[in-house]
Design goal:
Chain A contains four helices and eleven strands, in the order αβββααββββαββββ. Chain A has about 190 residues and is an alpha+beta fold. In chain A, the strands form two sheets. A seven-stranded antiparallel sheet of chain A has the order 4-5-6-11-10-9-8. A four-stranded mixed sheet of chain A has the order 3-2-1-7, with no helix packed on it. The chains are: A alpha+beta (about 190), B alpha+beta (about 170). At the A-B interface, β8 of A face β8 of B.
């Protein structure tokens, strides 16, 4: 009986390891989308394109737009807040509504929380190959990030690198920011300037 | 015996180095002497042919691609209309394995090798191409055409794809 249990245990461990190995080799296997899943459209209920008022209600916070208030010509601003258990940076752009009124619209977001992952399970601490594998059929834009070395000069960073995975229409993207070859933060946003 | 082995090794290394030096180089500026921006007359001298356009100077089209051979290597060459010099060289490509980048990437190289080799450069990986941008001038690029993650053609051409990095 003891021997039988020993064989059974070994078989269970063997098949379990084998399955893990198979899962690793199936990058197209999406995980179930959860409240912290990041896509090109946002994270959970935080959606690119939402207004500041909608977002304030969602995260139960009152946003103070410093840049836009201090300089009326400024059209972008960043708010750092919490979405459930995630620390997130929300990137806004000024939009024009009816009768000359303006409002702030979410154009991008970013988090460095380990709770946040893509639908393929890629998250903080993963390397570049883990990012590239599941997005085999997408346009990917990657390279060192540029850092300002003085008032007028920018140079490619030696430690910071980013991988931008574009959607089919090239209007939104998921952005992986790497530091020393590991994902340090994940973001999503509207593609601008192309 | 040791001396013979040494001599054979030396000959092999010398032959390899010579092959590397005699290879045709693809750069951000062009391919060998075929440089982006040179005029029609200069290009005709290098290709040893007279270029007859079907469209440039004859209809409204600004660009035209011609097929030619450069030092026996088949090439596709893009020309762009230019008011001063009729037309200038705007891009080129070949499927010949004789052309390689200075780092040795050419027809037959795989995607992972390109990514690893150009870690400090900006890359766009698309369904059919990998575009490598010049870090000093993002409008210049080396383009690798891919099939099954292997390079099947290589070229040099201007790109506007990295505009938002500037």
């Amino acid at each position: 009986m003891k021997n039988f249990l020993l064989y059974l245990g070994t078989a269970v461990v063997f098949f379990s390891c084998n399955q893990k190995e198979k899962d690793k080799k199936q990058p197209d296997k999406k995980t179930e989308k959860g409240e912290y899943t990041i896509t090109k459209d946002g994270i959970g209920e935080l959606k690119i394109g939402m207004s500041d008022a909608e977002l304030e209600r969602l995260v139960n916070d009152r946003f103070k737009f410093r840049m836009v208030v201090d300089s009326p010509g400024y059209w972008q601003d960043t708010i750092r807040t919490k979405y459930k258990d995630l620390d997130v940076s929300l990137y806004f752009e000024r939009q024009y509504g009816n009768s000359d009124s303006t409002y702030m619209q979410l154009s991008g977001l970013e988090t460095n929380s380990a709770l946040c992952k893509t639908e393929y399970g890629v998250g903080i601490g993963d390397d570049r190959s883990a990012i590239l594998e599941p997005y085999d059929d997408r346009a990917i834009y990657m390279g060192p990030e540029y850092e300002q070395t003085n008032d007028t000069t920018w140079a490619p960073s030696k430690t910071k690198y980013s991988v931008n995975v574009k959607d089919d229409k090239w209007d939104r993207e998921i952005i992986f920011h790497l530091v020393n070859k590991k994902v340090a933060s994940l973001g999503a946003g509207i593609i601008m300037g192309e | 015996m040791k001396k013979i082995i040494l001599l054979i090794s030396f000959a092999a290394v010398a032959s390899f180095a010579s092959a590397q030096n005699n290879g045709h180089i693809v750069s951000f500026d062009g391919m060998d002497e075929l440089k982006i921006g040179i005029g029609k007359v200069e290009l005709e001298k290098l290709l040893k042919i007279k270029i007859e356009f079907k469209h440039i100077g004859k209809d409204e089209r600004y660009t035209e691609t011609i097929n030619a051979t450069y030092k026996g290597i088949p090439m596709e060459i893009d020309m762009m209309r230019s008011d001063e010099i009729v037309a200038r060289l705007d891009g080129m490509r070949t499927s010949s394995p004789l052309f390689k980048t200075a780092e040795g990437i050419g027809v037959g190289s795989d995607q992972q090798t390109i990514i690893n080799t150009y870690e400090k450069h900006l890359l766009i990986i698309d369904k059919e191409t990998i575009t490598l941008a010049d870090a000093d001038n993002l409008h210049s690029s080396i383009v690798f055409w891919m099939k099954d993650k292997k390079v099947v053609a290589i070229g040099s051409e201007p790109t506007a794809a990295f505009r938002d990095r500037e």
